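Page 42, continued from yesterday. The earlier attempt failed because a stray header line got pasted into the input along with the sequence. Redoing it now with the clean sequence only.
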Amino acid sequence: RAPERAGGEGGSSEGGEGGEVFAADGLSERERVYLSELSLDEWRHAAAGRPKELPLPSMTAVCLSGECGVSTHAGGLVRLWGATTGRRLAAHQQRIELTACAACGPIFVAGDAAGALHAYNTDAEFGAPRVSRSPGGEAGVRSV
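This time it went through. Structure tokens are written below.
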């Protein structure tokens, strides 16, 4: 449906003060501009502030994928956390030091100091991973 204008130029409409009313959200043009400016101000404020430090001690690697972040830590700890909140969602302990990580969609892969790759699915239960030994054996994984 095409936008409707009520009351002519500068008149008021059902959706709010002045402008076109859009059927999809029921907001007038003026209301949509106002909401857009508020959103832009939030981004400006976030960009002007100092970066927030996540409480993730002894981190050895980190990656973000969608709304989740995954980090590896000294002692073989793997953490799944909310990317916007930093809140821990799940954790898993490995026996060998983890040295690298990467994510693609819900799949997260961590490499360890013994040369093995550990694959997790963040959509499913974040439990014991599938493990694959890299060819050549002895060297640790430096990047994934």
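Notes: The first strand starts at residue 4 and ends at 5.
Reminder to self: strip header lines before submitting.
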